[in-house]
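Lab notebook, bench 4. Still working through the backlog of constructs that have no structural model yet. Next entry is a single chain of 146 residues. Request: give me the structure tokens for it.
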Amino acid sequence: MKVKQLSLFLENKPGALSRPIKLLAKARLNILTLSIADTQQFGILRFVVRDWEKAKRLLEKEQFVVKVSDLVAIEVANEPGGLAGILLALERARVNVEYMYGFTLRAEGKGVLAFRFDDPDTAIASLLGAGINPIRRVDLFNRLTG
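Model written out:
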């Protein structure tokens, strides 16, 4: 139920973002979702690819420092309150949402959000207990590429 995310620290200057993106493209590694956060000095590129191990090796070979972390992908009803129910289940379990961002996939009136939790295992258990089923990794990639 967890999806691996890669994170890179990049200098906040023109061209810094395009270098890793071009490397991934050349290696035919499709970015399924991404997020960019910045400060004046640096940025953090966070992204998901199907073959994260290959992407990690490639980027490290090119001198990037790559951090791997777990995300939990959850279908969210595309209606008012869709996210509120998920957040309520997490709040009751005292799980902190560190950040989240969306996938471009939309199916059957639902969107998909990628969450980074302080405790992903507790988050998954609390979601399942509330009747909210995180998307299994294989199902997510099948939906995104199928």
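Notes after review: Residues 82-92 form the longest helix (11 residues). DSSP finds five helices and six strands in the chain. Flag for follow-up if needed.
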